[in-house]
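User: You have something folded?
Assistant:
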Amino acid sequence: MKLLIPFLSLCGTALAGVSRPEVSVLLNAGGAEPSIDIIQPSVYWGASDTIGDFDVEGGLTVKADVKSNTIPFSGWAKIKRSAFGFQSSARFDVDSKDLSKVGVDLAILGGPTGTGLLVSGSVDTDQGIVALDNVKLSQNVDSLGGVWSVVPSYNLGSQKGNVKLAYGTSGVSVSIDADMDQQKLTVAKGFGANVIAPSITNQGDVEVQFTRQLPTGSVVATVKSNESLNVKWSDGKWVANLKAPLGRDFAKEARVTLSCTGVNL
């Protein structure tokens, strides 16, 4: 917390922020009589500016949890700078659930090879302990009429590595996401305003995602074989989500969320 407070104070005193409430309503479609179970209003404040050679951003989200009668909040601050062909940034996150723990993300991108490095971790301000959680590298290469992307990562907590290899050209992209437990192949093809992306894992799980671009938003439908259906519709400030299992429990277990964001005070 000691690391984040000065940074948020800098954002609050030096930047011109815009307050905007974000209101969301969760509709529980259970049985023949759907009901509104949860109303979750939240207020977000964000600000950004340039101070000297640094770009500074900050934000604060305050929510009202009607079930627990609490008002949880979270805050973040980020500083960025570009110099000598490199783009570097540092981001700090804090949550009211544990104010002594500050999440830290350090990133650098650029240089002669265009390699990216992201290091994620946390700082326990009470104990003075710094923990490194995840390390990720990224590299893009232009070849064979398209762009190759290689992203290896390693999670120090689970001691597991992951590699994502992708190739994209006009209208088509192919990606392989692999770790020790599962490998996933995805092929995406664009047709005008539509994109269809089927994928399959080495365990035989099949998933198909269909995306339709709208004038002010999009519709994304994802079907997982023998598991679930997820439909997300966004139109300007409004976003609706439908999540439901496939099978007989579709109507009973379906969940619908409707949210409106970015309404300026």
